[in-house]
Amino acid sequence: SGDALMGRYVQIINGPNLQLLGRREPAIYGTATLDDIIGSVRERFGSIEIRHMQSNCEGAIIDALHGCGFDSDCMGVVLNAGAYTHTSLAIADAIAAIERPVVEVHLSNIFAREEIRHRSLIAANCAGSISGFGAESYALALQALIDYDR
Predict the structure, then answer these.
(1) For the segment 68-83, what is each residue's pLDDT rounded down to a tens digit?
(2) Given 29, 52, 84, 138, the catalytic residue
(3) Phi and psi of 108, rounded to 5°?
(4) 106 is catalytic
């Protein structure tokens, strides 16, 4: 990360129930809280501004995508859409509509879980998908965006 990255940011968007990390099904999602994860990513990628939002509301996630998706200072988006991954054509359409790349992220390996979670409606519109590496999935996604941006 050099001068080319200065003044640029990555938007992290987290969807429904992710504010419960650390308490919610720790056997699946781990014990790190969302604040722990975002703090760790900020520490690890100190030269890049990390903006973060979490919402349980589909419309707020779409608004956040629209808000950063046409901003030339935004390097891209790390999106954990939670269960909306499997149900939201509206979020898929928002990803398709914006100009910035989006990396889909999941803490758990969605393909090792219930069959309904095996299908991502958003994946086809994303630059890539990372799942199954717990909190590390966010750092992997951020690194992918940095490399993708070049």
Answers:
(1) 999 999 999 999 999 9
(2) 29
(3) -95, 160
(4) yes
